[in-house]
Amino acid sequence: MANRLVATAEQTALLEVREVTKAFPSPDGKGFIQVLSPLSFSIRAEEWVVVVGPSGGGKSTLLRILLGLIPPTSGEVLVHGKPLRGVHPNAALVFQQFALLPWLTVLENVELPLRAKGIPRLERLKRALAVIDMVGLDGYESAYPRELSGGMKQRVGLARALVVEPELLCMDEPFSALDVLTAENLRAELLRLWLERKMPTKAIVMVTHNLEEAVQLADRILVLGGLPTRLRAEIEVDLPHPRSPDSPSFRALLDDLYQWMTDPTRPDQKVVVATEISPQPFVPLPHARVGGIAGLLHILADVGGQIDLHELAHRLHLSIDDLLPIVEAARLLGFMEVKEGDLILTEKGIDWLKADILKRKEIFRDLVIQIPLIARIVSALRSTRNKTLPMDFFLDLLDEHFGEDEARRQLQTAIDWGRYAELFTYDATTDMLRAEE
Amino acid sequence: MIAKQVRSFNRYDAMVAMGLFALLYAAVHVGQGMFARFSPEHPPPISLNPALLPYYAARSVLRMFVALALSVAFSLVYGSVAAKNRRAEQFLIPLLDVLQSVPVLGFLSATLTFFLSLSPTSLFGLELASIFAIFTGQAWNMTFAFYHSLLTLPEPLKEAAAMMKLSRWQRFWKVEVSYAMLPLVWNGMMSFAGGWFFLAASEAITVLRRDYRLPGLGSYMATAVEQGDLVATLWAIGVMVVTIVAVDQFFWRPMVAWAEKFRTEETEAVVKVSSWVLNLLQQTHLLRRYFGRLAVGVGEWLDRRMTQIGEIALPEHTRLGLGRLTTFALITFCVYWFLRGVIIVVTDLSIGEMLRVVGLGFVTLARVMMVVVISTLLWVPIGVFIGLHPNLARFAQPLVQIAASFPANMLYPLLALVFLKTQFPFAIGSVIPMMLGAQWYVLFNAIAGAMGIPTELQEAAGIFRLPAKERWRWLIIPALFPHWVTGAITAWGGAWNASIVAEVIEWHKQRLTTAGLGAYITLAATKGHAAAIVWGITVMSAFVLTFNRLFWQRLYRLAELRYKLG
Q1: Which member of B163, B178, B303 has the closest CB to residue A115?
Q2: Average pLDDT over residues B442-446
Q3: Summary mean pLDDT of chain A
Q4: pLDDT tens-digit series, residues B84-125
């Protein structure tokens, strides 16, 4: 797998960073501070690469090295296999603080890079206006940057970068100077332009410290970290767009990235592939009351911890069908095992039986919170302001999975277990569920 | 693009077109005078007929603007080289520092001889000498402003220019000069105001007992004084004020208002500057369209041409060779003139004489210090009062600006008259003419400093009911300190320069002199005593530089570190 990736990388690399390091003179003038330790990776066509890492960790320095704005201390940057000398010939940069020229209008700002290329005036105007239109700045051509909001300014920054039709578009924390809603909006629009291939750009390299943003956008995430900064992990993000922040795979990858950021001892990993995780299905609850489970376990303990199921049914004058949900519930909670028709009390079961009532509730709570249905109920209740939701809300939710009658029964069982565990209460007069503190 | 409605010639067009025509005619008519064939020994006599004053004023203004253009060109070139070439910087910036401290007025007679030799048959040599004097009063400040702007050019803008692959020409105008535009314009306005002083001093010069007069306001004044004509003197002063106000209204205000466009977003305008002339220009339709089209055409053409030229890169060894050659030529030139100066001084002056001049330096130093102290005691309280009352400040600031622009040396003859009538001892009295020009910088900065005290701090002082004495001690003086240092340094430099013309003043063939380094230099110049001029100026420059290093720079650093607000 890794070999195949490396092979394709070499064929289509737009840009390759080879063993690049950077050291700056230390402020006291004696010696150097190593900022980047040898880094190697490549940028391929058709991918959006996001570089994440702690702030002040050399992300922006790396970006400037691969653009040729600052030279590496050692190592080299290859553009289409040739060593880069001076500024990258076919790349553009979008700045965190926009870096627009305040004395030029929007149109003049966007036109300027074309002017540098010596393109005649009319052609220049045509191309600049087309890009201005594309980024949604139509009608603002003659405005000065100071008259625009942050989001509009960054649109100008984007237009100025795109107007030269760069092969490689680099962005240095392009959304971090914007307010949350504006950033969200612009991010979505940029992603749309990229996915619909409206941008004349082969690859994007973006630096950010916003991990959610990275998961939202990236085809590949480079995780930087350590002192001096090294490449700690390279994550191929194989998730389809649009990526919902609520989806389990999104959460999982985000958690993983947080782990990388917060745990410096985690061993480096070369290539990790993040794929889609299907949502955890609801496991139907066996319809047993807590008292029933407790009773079954007492009997088991009395007979020495092991008994045949048929014999038990016979002793209790019950049919096996009546007994099965209780057995299933006890097994689900890990209080007993079923082996070749015998019910066997487990250590956990013995502990629970020996405990006093408060301790029992605590153990039970820790167990049921892991059951998907109960976990969903608890998190839904906790996410509301007054920790309360009507029973119908959950019935509607369960209908899809179980049908109306079974949904009601599932919920009754969940309420019984949840009440005992003191996770939530149910008020029958108002039909409301409420999470306990 | 946005289709602009075709509009016809409007009344603003008519007004501006008339203005432009008048300006063009005046420039041609007045400009011809610059090359008039006259023997410099027998210049055209200056008539005291007030009807000729507009013509004389126009000649003076033309001189000022030519000097300004030269100063701008010099600043752009010198500033860029200093900011971009490490090796050149190490040499150019200390040199600029010295040039700024040298009292150039003392050199006037020497430069005059040089420029006369360039153009012996017309007044053009005199004209150049005068323009050069004004230039030396303007250029250094502007150059420092431009150099400093280039050093503080924000990194993202540099990177953006590199990413866009702007040509050198494009980067220079669209990024560097644009970024420096606001400080350049403000500095140009201040330097221009200072330039009037040099204009008045340079239009009428006596070298070797011979008077050289250039047609202009300064020489009109000098002639009026010589003939003891008080009415003509007052006429000259009046026209000078009108001229200063007119240049301010028709040139500097529109420039400053226009330059607002170049403000970066990190800085906020303290006072919104508006100009009716700029508004008028912006309301013309036809003229704007045609001039706009012309400007775009010329701009495009220049852009292409200069980009091509900028791409011509000399081979590395040729560049290095040229650099070495220039350095060598410069060093040889400097060493040669330095040695010649040393030889003249050493052969012509005795050790005793040389020491006496140093002693005179201390006399003038005492006067200059008095100027700073008196200006501070007099103007700081007044400045603070004005600055703390915004309505008063809005009204007072333009007045102070005109007062600061008015060449104080035009008032010296009137002072001489007063001193002669009252028999006031001139040894102390000569502080007054020196202060006349220098004091405004203290006032200016005191107003600016008081206006800059944050309202929150003033309110806090009000809430704590700080008594006036405590308020000055803990709030006003510390907040004002950096501004006062800036004002005092400028006043200090101005007073040294003024000492050259302020220690010898005249009214109607009666001369008042007092012992001092300034008087020594002036008298040496009238006698044409080269060694004395060189030694006098050397001593004065040494005084200025030594005190700058030992005293003012330390105060400035202290102010920056401890008392800078915000």
Answers
A1: B303
A2: 89
A3: 87
A4: 888 888 888 888 888 877 777 777 777 777 787 777 777 788
- DSSP percent split of chain B into helix, strand, coil, nearest 5: 80, 5, 15
Q: What distance in Å separates the CA atoms of residue B261 and residue B265, rounded to the nearest whole number?
A: 10
Q: What SS3 state is found at B125?
A: helix
Res. B1 pLDDT band, cuts 50 70 90: very low
Helix (H, G, I), strand (E, B) or coil at B465: coil
Provide, as residue numbers in chain A, all residues whose Cβ is less than 8 Å from the Cβ of B303.
115
HEC-encoded secondary structure of A69-88: CCCCCEEEEEECCEECCCCC
Between residues A111 and B344, the one the model is more confident about: A111
| Any B CB within 8 A of A119 CB | no
* Alpha carbons B482 and B561: distance in angstroms, whole number: 10
Asked if A188 has any chain B CB less than 8 Å from its own CB, the reply is no
Nearest Cβ partner for A141 among B2, B181, B307: B2
The residue-averaged pLDDT of B243-267 equals 87
DSSP three-state, residue A269: strand
For residue A52, which of A218, A282, A265 has the smallest C-alpha distance? A218
Q: Which two tokens stand for residue B259?
A: 């330059």
Q: Do B166 and A116 touch (CB under 8 A)?
A: yes
pLDDT in tens, A7-34: 444 456 899 999 999 998 887 777 888 8
- How far A121 CA lies from chain B's nearest CA (Å)? 8
* pLDDT tens per residue across span B480-498: 998 899 889 888 988 998 8
A24 touches chain B (CB under 8 A): no
Contact B137, A85 (CB under 8 A): no
Task: Check whether B178 has a pLDDT greater than 70.
Answer: yes
CB B535 within 8 A of CB B550: no
Vertex B484: Cα angle to B180 and B396 (nearest 5): 80
Question: What is the signed CA dihedral for A112, A116, A118, A122, rounded to 10 degrees?
Answer: 0
Nearest-neighbour CA in chain B from A39: distance (Å): 23
Distance CA A358, CA A376 (A): 24
Mutate which of B163, B261, B282 to disrupt the A interface (most A C-beta within 10 Å)? B163
Strands (E), B293-378: none
Average pLDDT, stretch A27-46? 87
**Residue B444 near residue B404, CB atoms below 8 Å:** yes
* A100 contacts in chain B (CB < 8 Å): 160
With an 8 Å Cβ cutoff, is B233 touching chain A?
Answer: no
**Where would I find the beta strands (DSSP E) of A132-249?**
168-172, 203-208, 220-225, 230-238
- How far, in Å, CA of A393 to CA of A381, rounded? 11
Positions of E strands within B199-321: 204-207, 210-213
The strand pairing partners of A15, in sequence order, are A43, A79
User: Is the four-CA dihedral B523, B527, B532, B536 of positive or negative sign?
Assistant: positive
- Retrieve residue A332's tokens: 């689900």
Per-residue pLDDT, B531: 86
Tally Cβ neighbours within 10 Å of residue A265: 4
Closest CA to A278 of A302, A251, A256, A249: A249
Distance of CA B330 to the CA centre of its chain: 26
Of B470, B481, B476, B473, whose CA–CA distance to B457 is shortest? Answer: B476
Q: What is the pLDDT of residue B264?
A: 79
**Beta carbons of B159 and A113 less than 8 Å apart:** no
Does B170 sit within 8 Å of A116, measured CB to CB?
A: yes
For residues B347 and B354, give the distance between their C-alpha atoms in angstroms, rounded to a whole number.
12
Q: How far is CA A161 from CA B65, B164, B245, in A?
A: 42, 8, 47
pLDDT confidence band for B433 (50 / 70 / 90): very high
A101 neighbourhood in chain B, CB within 8 Å: 157, 160, 174-175, 178
